[in-house]
Write a structure and sequence with these properties.
The chain contains 10 helices and 12 strands. The chain is α/β, with parallel strands linked by helices. It folds into 3 domains: 2-10 and 195-279, 3-Layer(aba) Sandwich (Cobalt-precorrin-4 Transmethylase, domain 1), CATH 3.40.1010.20; 13-95, Rossmann fold, CATH 3.40.50; 98-188, 4-hydroxy-3-methylbut-2-enyl diphosphate reductase, catalytic domain (Cobalt-precorrin-4 Transmethylase, domain 1, 3-Layer(aba) Sandwich), CATH 3.40.1010.20. The strands form 3 sheets. A 4-stranded parallel beta sheet has the order 1-12-10-11, sandwiched between helices. α7 links the parallel β8 and β9. The structure holds iron/sulfur cluster (SF4). Iron/sulfur cluster is lined by residues 12-15, 72, 96, 98-99, 165-166, 193, 195-196, 264.
Amino acid sequence: MEVLLAEHAGYCFGVKRAVKLADDAATSHPDGVHSLGPLIHNPQVVEQLAKKGVKKVDSLDEVEDGVVIFRSHGVASPKLFEDAQAKGVTVVDATCPFVTNAQRDAKQLIEEGYQVVMVGDRNHPETKSVLGHAGGEILVTESFEEIKAYLNKFPKKRLGIISQTTQTYGKFSEIVVRCLEICEELKVFNTICYATEDRQNAAEELAAKVGAMVVVGGKNSANTTHLASICGNRNIPVYHIETAQEIQQDWFPGIEKVGVTAGASTPDWIINDVIRSLELM
Ligand code: SF4
């Protein structure tokens, strides 16, 4: 059976950087490294880091000394930096630079007096970190109608728009264009990071050429689950697995080509393991 890997698959820049920073911190501070929340949505990597001494905590209150790592989505408030420093805890900031840019742009728009809209999911940790750093009111939504209703209630002539980094360009640009109808001045920062969309487009393209797809990544990873559902639109068998051990012999009857893709928090070593196992079938 031929095994084809999607053109874009696995670790994005921000996740790769966060894992490297955590690895380095574990080496230089063997006495105590903590990650505030799971560093990434991949249980195998979190487990591997735990073996090296990186312990997950849910709150800074659980950290007395050593190092705390802020994960790639960013933290909910800049005050956490001050609180950590006040406790004598060293901060390793693994916030992805794309998220830092979104935080900076949101803050700038608020300081310039715009009503700020963030096109995204208000429950996502990244969105919460942007809200926490911007220091002002931001409407988070993926619905133009909601923006319109909000402006009817709280009229503002100047609208500033940013995007959650994982937003698709299509959705973002559609909302931006429609907002031209409802304000006098519009300022837009395109804060999309194309890692997610690149992986989605590559998965869709590959799924069109093969008899089955294997999607590799944490079952708790939203972007991996989304990749699986995109591949599923092609009406081929799609298997979402975390490791090669889950692959079953009877999954590919008569299939000549199988495609492999992986979410942005899946490391190369897991993807390569899966490819090797599939090639032996
Ligand atoms: S998806 Fe983009 S913004 Fe998010 S961590 Fe990866 S590189 Fe950074």
